[in-house]
Design brief:
This protein is of the alpha+beta class. It folds into three domains: about 60 residues, no CATH class; about 80 residues, Phosphorylase Kinase, domain 1; about 150 residues, Transferase(Phosphotransferase) domain 1 (Transferase(Phosphotransferase), domain 1, Orthogonal Bundle), CATH 1.10.510.10. Helix content is about 35%, strand content about 15%. It contains nine helices and eleven strands. The strands form three sheets. Strands 1-2-3-4-6-5 form a six-stranded antiparallel β-sheet. A three-stranded antiparallel β-sheet has the order 7-9-10. Helix 1 packs across helix 3, helix 5 runs antiparallel to helix 7 and helix 5 runs antiparallel to helix 9. Bound molecules: adenosine-5'-diphosphate and magnesium ion (MG). The site of magnesium ion (MG) has 5 residues, from loops.
Length: about 325
Amino acid sequence: MTSFEDAVAAIERAGSFPDLLCGGLAGVEPGHAYKMLVKIVHPDVAPAGRRASATQAAAKLSALWAGARSLTTKRATYRLGSLVASGDLADLTALDDELLLKLPRQPADNDLMRAEVSALTTLERDGDPRHRAYAPRLVESFTHEDAAGARRTAVVLTRQSGFVPLTGLAHRLDPRDVAWMWRRLLTGLGWAHRAGIVHGAILPEHVLIHPEEHGVVLVDWCYSVPVGGTVPAIVARHRAAYPPEILARRPATAATDIHLATGLMLQLVADPPAALRRFAAGCRFASPRQRPQDAWSLLAEFDELLHDLYGPRRFRPFALPAR
Ligand SMILES: Nc1ncnc2c1ncn2[C@@H]1O[C@H](COP(=O)(O)OP(=O)(O)O)[C@@H](O)[C@H]1O
Ligand SMILES: [Mg+2]
């Protein structure tokens, strides 16, 4: 426990809240440290004759704490919220009400973060605006330097509220429910491909759905490349899901995303009809040249298949199965 005089002196010296987390407070969770310090320097419990210093220290402490819960960039000051998700390389923290800060844990992943910046910028510039909602928007990117001098590439993204990832749903859904996800996924991919971008990591955690509104959004563009580029990294625990050209570091094309997306969609279905299995097999040939090359043409074929299986298309309310 820090004494009154130590705490007042430390608060006077501190330039930012993390400066206080040393000595007796080293390693203490920031919110807890803040509460402890508030009690120690509270003017009502200050030693005789030290009330003015306590008042001053308490005011500075609350300013330091407010600063610790905000983030100022060249563009704006954001309110930092709680940790929303930890991905394979980054932590995502709520910013203001509708944004996310995505910050990689290691500076070694800055190149993957730059790939995400590049893809989202290209989608914004070259993608058909009618399909803009298939990816989050990039609000800004900047270099974050921590106390130890490590420089990490951070991005601020729009947050997809009401959306959930397709994790934990393998073999659990009716094909008629997967149908709308599959159709939208192909629509989103066609949009990205026409803007010249291959996503490169169509995996359950990167396809977010809005169950009631039948919305689909593709996130995590860190593994994306311009059409014909080589995907720089894989998510190792999903190695088995990847098409051979990614593992062999050969050029990735629309057919690469089509392979990944088809594998993911088929996996969701509890008991796929034979015709659906055949359709999926044709999208997952080992050789990319044998697969369909265009997501939007493939969508037209998929619609025919759905029509043959289930008749005219109509809205089917969807709720996620209990997890
Ligand atoms: N824009 C977003 N809105 C809402 N949730 C998101 C958004 N981007 C990512 N997420 C969630 O956070 C998780 C991790 O994000 P991701 O971009 O995959 O990070 P990483 O590159 O570290 O893997 C995703 O699986 C998804 O559930
Ligand atoms: Mg990810």
